[in-house]
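ok posting inputs for the beta-D-galactopyranose job
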Amino acid sequence: MKKIISYIILITLVVLLSGCKNNSHKKIGILIYDKEDTFMKEYLTSVINTIEEEYYYEVGFADRNQLKQTSQFINFIDRKFDLIIVNAVDRLQSGSFIEKAEQNNIPLIFINREPQSLLNDSKNSYYVGSDSKNTGLLQANIVKEMVTNNKIKDKNNDGIIQTIILKGEQSHQDSESRTIEFIDSLGKLDVSYELLAISVANWDRKQAFDKMRELDQMLDNIELIVSNNDDMALGAVDYLKEKYGEIDLKIIGVDGTNSGLNAIDNNEIYATVTNDIVAQTEAIKKITDYLLKGIIDSDFNYEERFQLIKGEIVKK
Ligand code: GAL
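and the output
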């Protein structure tokens, strides 16, 4: 029985992870660092919807394991895929991916996890991701607007906003730049704040919940939670609801995932900054069409190897 169930699961996986309308289509390999990541799930769906009519594709999920991803990458190379979209587990690994792909004349599009190597020197590799500095600035603008309109409850009446930051993975360009730029911009905007803690929760809702428990002693003092993504913001929401039954502070996220936007509708999260999946997917499609079919869109700058897409503020 166990065997039959595993077999059914395997078949379902194979069907889900590859798509083919026509055998003559060019082949695209897609590598995703973690299939449990909420934002990347929505991103992948959008990429697949955009390419599936015109290209054959296969997806490999790495479960945050670089060795696993490297073997999936080699597999696509050995099977002569025409292009590989890489959401790298370890950004340091991208240099060796670029080298191997160039030896085999296969273009790469890195997405969401920026390669830490000289993409500009590569023949035909690109990066598509969010403009994370801009995201940090927009989060600070949200705080400024809240201060101006007295929307943050000053629990201890000191005129200073007691703040914590929930940070994504260490050394991920989006966690680092969003955090630094947010802090810098608050200073430039003359917002009086006190940073009580920066807590790393690796983009994950459950880990953010646990981090909030660790910060429990200071919870009564916190007036603002700024999160590097919506899922961690939701982890904070979960914890506050469990502890107090209500949320009496302001929370800001990033991404604009379906669950994040629902939480804004329900007044659990105040605002988010989008990590624009539609625009990023469009850029991926344009680069793909250019590299694999020679189609040129005169409005697109193919010289720019780092396509950084700005987000927008969403609030109720
Ligand atoms: C970020 C996003 C996070 C997470 C991460 C994965 O851009 O905001 O939610 O998906 O990428 O690399």
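notes: Residues 1-16 have pLDDT under 50 and may be disordered. Residues 213 and 239 are 7 Å apart (CA to CA).
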